[in-house]
Amino acid sequence: MKGTALLSALLLVAACGSAGEPADGPDVLRVLAGSEIKDLEPLLRRAESETGVRVRLTYTGTLDGAEQVASGRADGQQDAVWFSANRYLSLIDGAQARLSTQTKIMISPVVLGLKPAKASELGWDTKPVTWAGIAEAARQGRFSFGMTNPASSNSGFSALVGVAAALSDADGALSADQVSSVTPRLKEFFSAQRLTAGSSGWLADAYARDPRVDGMVNYESVLLGAREPLTIVYPADGVVSADYPLTLLASAPEGKKALYGKLADWLRTPAVQKEIMTGTHRRPIVAGVPPDPRFGSAQLIELPFPNRRSTADELIATYLNQVRVPAEAAFVLDTSGSMQGDRIAALRQALVALTGADTSASGAFSRFRNRESVTMMPFDDAPGSPVPFTVPERDPAPVLGEIRRFAEGLEAAGGTAIYDSLKAAYDRPVAPGHYGSIVLMTDGENTDGSDYAAFEAHYRSLPEERRHTPTFVVLFGESDAEEMRRVAELTGGAVFDARSTSLAEAFKEIRGYQ
Q: Alpha helix locations (H) across 9-145?
C-alpha cells in the first residue's frame, strides 16, 4: 500500500463494488481483513459477476482485528475475516468459539530478500544458510534489512517467531523460558535492522526509497514483486508461512454462509488460483495447480509457533522493549485556537493512551516503548519549546507519567505555524542508531510563518541522512488534505485520516510505523 494513500486505510471500508452501494444486503459478504488482502480487490470485483457475491472489505491491523473477533465486537458487523494467518487469533481465549469454517486460499512464506550483489558477497545465492548464519552476519554488520513491526503486521510477527524459534533450536512450540534465553541472540540479529513499518506494502515502498538498506524480511510475494530484483534467501532451518484463511464467523446468518461457500469455492478453482499466483506472486494452495518456477524447488520447513498467547505477547514485548533498535519520535502538535474545546481534549486523550492508558493488547504494544526518545513540540503561531522525554529500559512508569501530565496540560490558543514548526522538528538531530520519525497533527491550514514551498526547499537542503526521517501526517478538523499529502510524499511518510475515526485511533496506528 502506498504511504501517501494510507489515509487510515487499515481502518476504513474498501468498496469492492460500485460507489454508493449499500454496505450490506443479501448479496454482500462483509469481511474484516488485513491490509495484505488489498491486492486482491480487482479479483474480488470480478467475483461479483461470476459468483453473485459482492465483497465488502474493512481493513484492520492484525492485533486489533483479532481483538474485535475474540471479544465479539465483530459479530453482527462482519460475516467473515480474512487475515494472512489466524495463528495469533487462535491463541486468544474464546476466539475459537467465534469462528466457523476456515478455507486456506494461498501461501506465502516470510523470508529474506537481498540485493543480488549483497547476496553474492555473502555467498547466500549459491549455498544454504540458516537463521543462525544470518544472525551472525547481522552481528558482524555485514548487511542491513527492513522488517515490519510484529505488533501491527503479520509479516513482522511471523519473522520474529521464525527467527526466535530457529535461534532457540525449539523442537516444539516456543515457551516463555525460550524467549528469555534467546533474547541476546535476537538482539544480535535485529542490530542489522534499519527500517521499520506498519505494513508489508509500505515497507516495500520505504525500502525502494532508501538505497542504504541491503534487503528486507517480508512475504515472498512482496519480495518477488519488488521494483528492483532481489535474491530471495530461504533459511534451511525453516520459515513461518502465511496461508490466508478466509474464515466464516460463527455468528454469520445462514444467507451469508452460502455467500461464503460460493466465494471460497471460486477462489480455490484452478483458474483463479493460477491468476492469484500470477498477479500477486503467492503460491497456490490447490494441489492441481503447478507452482511457478520463481518459487524455487526447495521444500519449505515450517518452524514451530507459540501455543500460548502469553508467550506470543512476551515475544512481541521483548522485541519492542529490549531487542529492536530504539525509536526517536517527534510529535509536532497543533495547539492553535481552533483546537479549543473537544479537539484539544481529543489530543490529550490520544497522547495519554500512548502512555499505557489503553489496556487492550494493541494499546499495550503501541505505548511509548522502553529506550524510546519522545519529543513533544506543540505549536500555535510559532513553534513552542521542545519538551524531550526518554523512556528508560527499566521501570518506565515514572517517565510515562511525566508524558501523561504533559499531555493533560496542553492548552489551545493562537495561530497556526505548521511549516516553521515542522522545519524545527527536522532541524533536531536524531541519535545515531535510532529510528527517527515525525508525527504532524493539525486541524487547520497554515496561517503564520513560512509556507509549504519554503519548507520543501529547506527539506531538500538537509543532509541525506536527515531526509530519511518520514513525517506521518494526521488529518483532523479542517486541515488541508492535499497539502498534507504533499508533506507525506515529500518526506516518505504517510497520511492518517482522523476525521472519520479518532485521533486516538490514528495515533495508535502510526505507532506501528515508528
A: 41-51, 62-71, 87-91, 95-98, 116-122, 131-139
